[in-house]
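Field reference: sequence -> structure
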Amino acid sequence: MTGSDGAPGRAGHPPGHDEEDPYADVDLAELPDWWRRNVEAFRDHRMRPYRPPQFEDGDLVPELVRRLESELDVEIRIRKRIGPDRDEGWTVLVDGRPATTLDRVRTEEGRSVYAVTAAEFETAVRDAVEA
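Structure field:
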């Protein structure tokens, strides 16, 4: 079956259906609390499987953010921004102040990948703290 745009449809499947279950062979109790909670919340809401956001080098965003927040005693948030010209992007806020901007892509499997390495992200955060 195809949709009105000619693309293959997902007839008979509920919203959020995903053929692949990345957690089929994973003991959720072995995952960090934040990860397990997200897996369970996504399942509870019948969404596609949770895949944590990554930097372009594959490092996980939540792990680095938590480490830096603890080490530097700051709050780090990544917020979507839409500029006056409707240009979209993401802003890294450190204690509520803009530190840097990021581009992000969403992969076909539903994972967010930020177009920066973990080391580049860490440098931007540390520079913002020192400023």
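Note: The chain is about 30% helix and 20% strand.
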